[in-house]
Amino acid sequence: MVGKLFRVVLDFVLPAFCGVCDKPLEKDERVVCEECMSQMQFISEPYCLRCGKPTKGEKVCMDCFIHPHKLLRTRALGVYTGVLASLIHLLKYTRRLSLAARLGKMMSKLVIEDNFLSKAQLIVPVPLHPTRMRERGYNQSELLAKNIGEYLNIPMSKKSLLRVRNTKSQTRLAPEKRRENVKGAFMVKGPEHVANKHILLVDDVFTTGATLDECAIALINGEASAVYAITCAAAV
Q1: Distance CA 236, CA 225 (A)
Q2: What are the b/e assignments for 20-58, b being 16+ CB within 10 Å?
Q3: 107: left (phi over 0), alpha (psi -120 to 50) or beta
Q4: Confidence class of residue 81 from pLDDT cuts 50, 70 and 90?
Q5: Domains in the chain, ordered, with CATH?
Q6: What is the share, in percent, of the chain residues with pLDDT greater than 70?
Q7: What is the pTM of this model?
Q8: By three-state DSSP, how is residue 221 classified?
Protein backbone atom coordinates (compact mmCIF):
# COMPACT_ATOMS: atom_id res chain seq x y z
CA MET A 1 0.00 0.00 0.00
CA VAL A 2 2.82 2.39 0.93
CA GLY A 3 4.63 1.53 -2.30
CA LYS A 4 1.55 2.30 -4.43
CA LEU A 5 1.00 5.62 -2.60
CA PHE A 6 4.66 6.57 -3.12
CA ARG A 7 4.37 5.81 -6.82
CA VAL A 8 1.26 7.98 -7.16
CA VAL A 9 2.95 10.90 -5.35
CA LEU A 10 6.09 10.48 -7.44
CA ASP A 11 4.10 10.55 -10.68
CA PHE A 12 2.39 13.74 -9.51
CA VAL A 13 5.59 15.57 -8.48
CA LEU A 14 7.89 14.39 -11.28
CA PRO A 15 7.17 14.17 -15.01
CA ALA A 16 5.95 10.75 -16.16
CA PHE A 17 8.18 8.81 -18.52
CA CYS A 18 7.36 6.59 -21.47
CA GLY A 19 7.19 2.95 -20.41
CA VAL A 20 9.00 1.91 -23.60
CA CYS A 21 11.70 4.51 -24.37
CA ASP A 22 11.90 6.35 -20.98
CA LYS A 23 11.51 9.79 -22.56
CA PRO A 24 9.32 12.31 -20.65
CA LEU A 25 5.69 12.13 -21.71
CA GLU A 26 3.85 15.13 -23.11
CA LYS A 27 0.83 16.48 -21.21
CA ASP A 28 -1.68 14.55 -23.30
CA GLU A 29 0.31 11.30 -23.35
CA ARG A 30 -0.24 8.41 -20.94
CA VAL A 31 2.11 5.51 -20.18
CA VAL A 32 3.62 5.32 -23.70
CA CYS A 33 4.58 8.22 -25.97
CA GLU A 34 3.02 8.66 -29.40
CA GLU A 35 6.38 8.18 -31.13
CA CYS A 36 6.66 4.66 -29.68
CA MET A 37 3.01 3.90 -30.46
CA SER A 38 3.63 4.89 -34.09
CA GLN A 39 6.33 2.20 -34.32
CA MET A 40 3.92 -0.67 -33.66
CA GLN A 41 4.07 -3.25 -36.44
CA PHE A 42 0.66 -4.66 -37.32
CA ILE A 43 0.07 -8.01 -39.02
CA SER A 44 -1.24 -7.53 -42.54
CA GLU A 45 -1.86 -9.91 -45.43
CA PRO A 46 -0.71 -12.53 -46.09
CA TYR A 47 -1.55 -14.25 -42.82
CA CYS A 48 -2.84 -17.70 -41.89
CA LEU A 49 -6.63 -17.84 -42.10
CA ARG A 50 -6.77 -20.06 -39.00
CA CYS A 51 -4.21 -18.69 -36.51
CA GLY A 52 -3.62 -15.21 -37.93
CA LYS A 53 0.18 -15.47 -37.95
CA PRO A 54 2.10 -14.01 -40.91
CA THR A 55 2.79 -16.37 -43.80
CA LYS A 56 4.72 -16.18 -47.07
CA GLY A 57 1.53 -16.42 -49.04
CA GLU A 58 0.01 -19.67 -47.79
CA LYS A 59 -3.64 -19.50 -46.76
CA VAL A 60 -3.02 -21.94 -43.91
CA CYS A 61 0.36 -22.18 -42.18
CA MET A 62 2.18 -25.48 -41.72
CA ASP A 63 1.60 -25.49 -37.95
CA CYS A 64 -2.18 -25.21 -38.41
CA PHE A 65 -2.02 -27.90 -41.10
CA ILE A 66 -0.25 -30.31 -38.73
CA HIS A 67 -2.15 -29.29 -35.57
CA PRO A 68 -5.62 -28.07 -36.62
CA HIS A 69 -7.10 -25.66 -34.10
CA LYS A 70 -10.57 -25.85 -32.58
CA LEU A 71 -10.90 -22.14 -33.25
CA LEU A 72 -12.45 -21.21 -36.59
CA ARG A 73 -10.40 -18.03 -36.77
CA THR A 74 -7.80 -16.21 -34.68
CA ARG A 75 -6.46 -12.73 -35.33
CA ALA A 76 -3.75 -10.70 -33.62
CA LEU A 77 -2.80 -7.04 -33.84
CA GLY A 78 0.87 -7.74 -34.43
CA VAL A 79 3.86 -9.96 -33.79
CA TYR A 80 4.99 -10.35 -30.18
CA THR A 81 8.09 -8.18 -30.42
CA GLY A 82 9.22 -4.57 -30.08
CA VAL A 83 6.74 -1.96 -28.88
CA LEU A 84 3.77 -4.33 -28.81
CA ALA A 85 5.61 -6.82 -26.57
CA SER A 86 6.54 -3.93 -24.26
CA LEU A 87 2.92 -2.76 -24.07
CA ILE A 88 1.70 -6.23 -23.13
CA HIS A 89 4.43 -6.54 -20.48
CA LEU A 90 3.48 -3.14 -19.02
CA LEU A 91 -0.19 -4.14 -18.85
CA LYS A 92 0.41 -7.65 -17.53
CA TYR A 93 3.18 -7.13 -14.99
CA THR A 94 3.35 -3.43 -14.02
CA ARG A 95 -0.34 -2.57 -13.58
CA ARG A 96 -0.45 -0.01 -16.41
CA LEU A 97 -4.13 -0.84 -16.68
CA SER A 98 -5.05 2.14 -18.87
CA LEU A 99 -3.31 0.35 -21.75
CA ALA A 100 -6.20 -2.14 -21.85
CA ALA A 101 -8.46 0.59 -23.23
CA ARG A 102 -6.00 1.59 -25.93
CA LEU A 103 -5.21 -1.95 -27.00
CA GLY A 104 -8.86 -2.92 -26.73
CA LYS A 105 -9.84 -0.17 -29.12
CA MET A 106 -7.32 -1.34 -31.72
CA MET A 107 -8.45 -4.95 -31.29
CA SER A 108 -12.08 -3.83 -31.74
CA LYS A 109 -11.28 -2.35 -35.14
CA LEU A 110 -9.76 -5.67 -36.17
CA VAL A 111 -12.94 -7.47 -35.08
CA ILE A 112 -15.12 -5.12 -37.14
CA GLU A 113 -12.98 -5.65 -40.26
CA ASP A 114 -12.96 -9.46 -40.04
CA ASN A 115 -15.79 -11.42 -41.66
CA PHE A 116 -15.68 -14.12 -38.97
CA LEU A 117 -14.88 -12.23 -35.77
CA SER A 118 -17.57 -9.66 -36.53
CA LYS A 119 -20.21 -12.39 -36.07
CA ALA A 120 -19.45 -12.55 -32.33
CA GLN A 121 -22.46 -12.47 -30.01
CA LEU A 122 -20.60 -12.93 -26.72
CA ILE A 123 -17.08 -11.98 -25.65
CA VAL A 124 -15.28 -14.27 -23.20
CA PRO A 125 -11.82 -13.61 -21.72
CA VAL A 126 -9.41 -16.46 -21.08
CA PRO A 127 -9.81 -16.89 -17.30
CA LEU A 128 -7.14 -17.04 -14.62
CA HIS A 129 -7.31 -19.62 -11.86
CA PRO A 130 -8.61 -18.01 -8.62
CA THR A 131 -5.19 -18.53 -6.99
CA ARG A 132 -3.41 -16.67 -9.81
CA MET A 133 -6.10 -13.99 -9.79
CA ARG A 134 -5.50 -13.33 -6.09
CA GLU A 135 -1.73 -13.10 -6.67
CA ARG A 136 -1.94 -10.66 -9.60
CA GLY A 137 -5.07 -8.80 -8.54
CA TYR A 138 -6.50 -8.57 -12.07
CA ASN A 139 -6.81 -10.49 -15.33
CA GLN A 140 -5.37 -8.57 -18.28
CA SER A 141 -7.46 -10.61 -20.72
CA GLU A 142 -10.62 -9.65 -18.85
CA LEU A 143 -9.67 -5.96 -19.02
CA LEU A 144 -9.11 -6.24 -22.78
CA ALA A 145 -12.39 -8.14 -23.25
CA LYS A 146 -14.31 -5.55 -21.22
CA ASN A 147 -13.04 -2.72 -23.41
CA ILE A 148 -13.69 -4.62 -26.64
CA GLY A 149 -17.23 -5.35 -25.48
CA GLU A 150 -17.84 -1.69 -24.69
CA TYR A 151 -16.47 -0.47 -28.03
CA LEU A 152 -18.50 -3.01 -30.01
CA ASN A 153 -21.59 -3.04 -27.79
CA ILE A 154 -21.34 -6.81 -27.41
CA PRO A 155 -21.92 -8.42 -23.99
CA MET A 156 -18.85 -9.72 -22.14
CA SER A 157 -19.06 -12.61 -19.70
CA LYS A 158 -16.27 -13.32 -17.22
CA LYS A 159 -18.22 -16.05 -15.44
CA SER A 160 -19.21 -18.36 -18.30
CA LEU A 161 -15.76 -19.95 -18.61
CA LEU A 162 -13.76 -21.12 -15.59
CA ARG A 163 -10.18 -22.33 -15.18
CA VAL A 164 -10.60 -25.33 -12.89
CA ARG A 165 -6.92 -26.30 -12.66
CA ASN A 166 -4.09 -24.01 -11.58
CA THR A 167 -1.78 -24.89 -14.46
CA LYS A 168 1.93 -24.17 -14.71
CA SER A 169 3.08 -21.13 -16.64
CA GLN A 170 3.23 -21.95 -20.36
CA THR A 171 6.15 -19.61 -20.99
CA ARG A 172 9.03 -22.12 -21.00
CA LEU A 173 7.13 -25.24 -22.07
CA ALA A 174 7.59 -26.97 -25.43
CA PRO A 175 4.50 -27.11 -27.70
CA GLU A 176 3.52 -30.67 -26.72
CA LYS A 177 3.97 -29.90 -23.03
CA ARG A 178 1.83 -26.79 -23.44
CA ARG A 179 -1.04 -28.90 -24.77
CA GLU A 180 -0.66 -31.42 -21.94
CA ASN A 181 -0.42 -28.67 -19.33
CA VAL A 182 -3.80 -27.10 -20.15
CA LYS A 183 -5.72 -30.24 -21.16
CA GLY A 184 -9.07 -30.23 -19.36
CA ALA A 185 -8.18 -27.04 -17.47
CA PHE A 186 -11.37 -25.17 -18.42
CA MET A 187 -15.08 -25.71 -18.03
CA VAL A 188 -18.25 -23.82 -18.88
CA LYS A 189 -20.43 -22.62 -16.04
CA GLY A 190 -24.04 -22.29 -17.14
CA PRO A 191 -24.01 -23.71 -20.69
CA GLU A 192 -27.23 -21.86 -21.43
CA HIS A 193 -25.20 -18.63 -21.59
CA VAL A 194 -22.98 -19.88 -24.45
CA ALA A 195 -25.26 -22.37 -26.24
CA ASN A 196 -25.99 -21.54 -29.89
CA LYS A 197 -23.81 -18.42 -29.78
CA HIS A 198 -20.79 -17.22 -31.70
CA ILE A 199 -18.11 -16.71 -29.03
CA LEU A 200 -15.11 -14.40 -29.27
CA LEU A 201 -12.28 -15.44 -26.92
CA VAL A 202 -9.86 -12.72 -25.82
CA ASP A 203 -6.27 -13.19 -24.65
CA ASP A 204 -3.03 -11.21 -24.65
CA VAL A 205 -0.68 -13.48 -26.66
CA PHE A 206 -1.20 -16.38 -29.08
CA THR A 207 1.82 -18.70 -28.99
CA THR A 208 0.88 -22.27 -29.89
CA GLY A 209 -2.84 -21.78 -29.35
CA ALA A 210 -2.96 -24.57 -26.74
CA THR A 211 -4.75 -22.47 -24.10
CA LEU A 212 -7.22 -20.96 -26.54
CA ASP A 213 -7.95 -24.38 -28.03
CA GLU A 214 -8.76 -25.84 -24.61
CA CYS A 215 -11.05 -22.89 -23.94
CA ALA A 216 -12.71 -23.51 -27.31
CA ILE A 217 -13.20 -27.21 -26.51
CA ALA A 218 -14.98 -26.31 -23.26
CA LEU A 219 -17.20 -23.79 -25.06
CA ILE A 220 -18.00 -26.21 -27.89
CA ASN A 221 -18.91 -28.84 -25.28
CA GLY A 222 -21.23 -26.17 -23.88
CA GLU A 223 -22.85 -26.13 -27.34
CA ALA A 224 -21.45 -22.83 -28.59
CA SER A 225 -22.13 -22.48 -32.33
CA ALA A 226 -18.62 -21.24 -33.17
CA VAL A 227 -15.54 -20.01 -31.35
CA TYR A 228 -13.11 -17.36 -32.63
CA ALA A 229 -10.28 -15.56 -30.85
CA ILE A 230 -8.48 -12.26 -30.87
CA THR A 231 -5.21 -11.48 -29.14
CA CYS A 232 -2.94 -8.47 -28.82
CA ALA A 233 -0.02 -10.34 -30.31
CA ALA A 234 1.06 -13.57 -31.97
CA ALA A 235 4.43 -15.14 -31.09
CA VAL A 236 6.26 -16.36 -34.20
Answers
A1: 29
A2: beeeebeeebbbbbeebbeebeebeeebbbbbbbbbeee
A3: alpha
A4: very high
A5: 1-39 (no CATH), 42-234 (3.40.50.2020)
A6: 93
A7: 0.90
A8: helix
